[in-house]
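FOLDING PROBLEM:
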Amino acid sequence: MKAVLSTKDEKFRDFALNGKMFSVILYVCVPLALYQSLTQVFKVFDTMMASHISSTAVSSVAYISQIQIMLSALGSGLAVGAGIKVSEAYGAGDFELVRRRVSTMTALCACLGAGILVILLPFASVFLRLMNTPEEFITLGSTYFRVELVALVITFFNNIYISIERSRGNSRRILFLNICIVSIKLALTALFVYVFHLGITSIAVATLISQLSVLVFAFINMTKKDSLFSFSVKAVSFKKEIVSPMLSLSFPVIIEKAAFALGKVIVNSMCTFYGPKTVGALGISNNIGGITTMPQAGFQEGGSAVISQNRGAGKYERTIKAFWCELLCNLVIGVLIMTVTLLGLDFLSEFFAGDDREFALLIKSIYSYEAWGAIPLGINATVLSLLYGLGKTKITLFMNFCRIFLFRVPVLLYLQKFTDFGSESAGIVMGVSNILSGALAVIVGIITIGKISRRTKSS
C-alpha cells in the first residue's frame, strides 16, 4: 500500500503547523465561508423558484428539506468525525494511517448510503407521515422527496471528498466545486420552472444532476494511484483500531446533527398550528438568516481542521490562537451581515413573497427576531469549531441538544399555550434559542480554553 505525500500537501502541512495563525485561518476558512455562502444563495434561489410555483410548494419544500437535513446528518456526521481523525493523523505525520482512514470512511459511506435507499426509498410517503408531515405536503412532495433521497446518498460521498480536501487545505478547490454545483443547479431549476413550468420534483432532479457532476470529479481525484488522499481497496480496514476512533467521534456528531434537524422538523410541525404560510415564512427567514450563519459555518469547518492538525502535532498553544482568530472573523461577519439584512428586510421579504403582501409581512415579522442571533451564533460556531478540532464531540452534542430541546421547543410550546403572539412566536423562539445558545457557548468556551491553557503551561 504505497502512498506519497505530494510537495503541495507537505508545504500546506508545514504552513498549518508553523505559519502565522491569522494567515492560516484566512487561507483555509475564507474559501469555505464563500462555499457555504454560495450554498445558502442556492437555497435562497431554490426557495424563490419554488415560490413561483405556489405558496404551498414553497412550504412543502421548506418542510421536507428539514427532514432531508435530518437524514443527511448520517453522512455529514461521518464526514466530520472521520475528517477530524484524518486531519489529526496528517498533523501527526502518520501518513499510512491517513490513507487507511480515508479509504475506510469512504467504504463506510457506501454501506450507509445503500442502507438508506433500501429502507426509505420504497416507503417514502409512510416515512413522511411518521415525521408528522401535513397531508397536502405529502401529496405534493412525496416524489420530490424520493429524488432528494437519491441525491442525498450522492451527497454523502461528496461530503467525504470535501472533508478530505479540507484536511489537506484545498479550500479553493472546494469553492470551485460549489460554484459548479450552484451554477448547474440554478440553471437547470430555472429551465425546469420558468421555461417548462414543471412542479417541485424538477427542483429535486436539478439537485441530483448537480451533485452527480461533483461525484464524477471526486471519483477522478480519489482514484489517482499512489496519492496519500486517494481511495484504495487494499487500504480499507474494519479493524477496531482504525474504525473505532472515527466512529466514536462520528456517532455524537450524527446524533447531534440528526437531533438538531429533527428539532427543526418538530418546530415546523408545531408552526403548522398557525397555518402553512407560517411554515413557509419560517423557512424563508431561516434562509435569510443563513446568509449570516453559513459563512460562520465555513469558518467553523476550516477552523476545526486547523485545530485538529495542530492538536495532532501537540501544538496546543496554536489551537488557542486559532480559536481567537476565528472568533474575531465570525463576530465581524455576524455584525456586518446582520446589519445589512435588517436594513434590507423590506426588499428581501417582498422579493420572496412576490405579490403576496400578507406573506411578506409574515416573513418580516419572523426574521426581525431571528436576525439578532447572528452574533451569539458566531460565538457558538467558533466554540463548536474548537470542540470538533479537539475531538470533544460529546460536548457539541450536548450544546446542540440544548439549543433545540431546551431553548427552542419548550419556549415555542410556552408561547403557543400562554401567549397570543400568533405567528410572531416563530420568530421569537428563534431569537431566544439563538441568544441562549451563544450564552451557553461562552460558558463552555471559557472552561475549554482554561483547560488547554493549563495543559500548555504544565507541558
Observations:
- The chain has a mean pLDDT of 87.
- The first helix runs from residue 7 to 18.
- The chain has 17 helices and no strands.
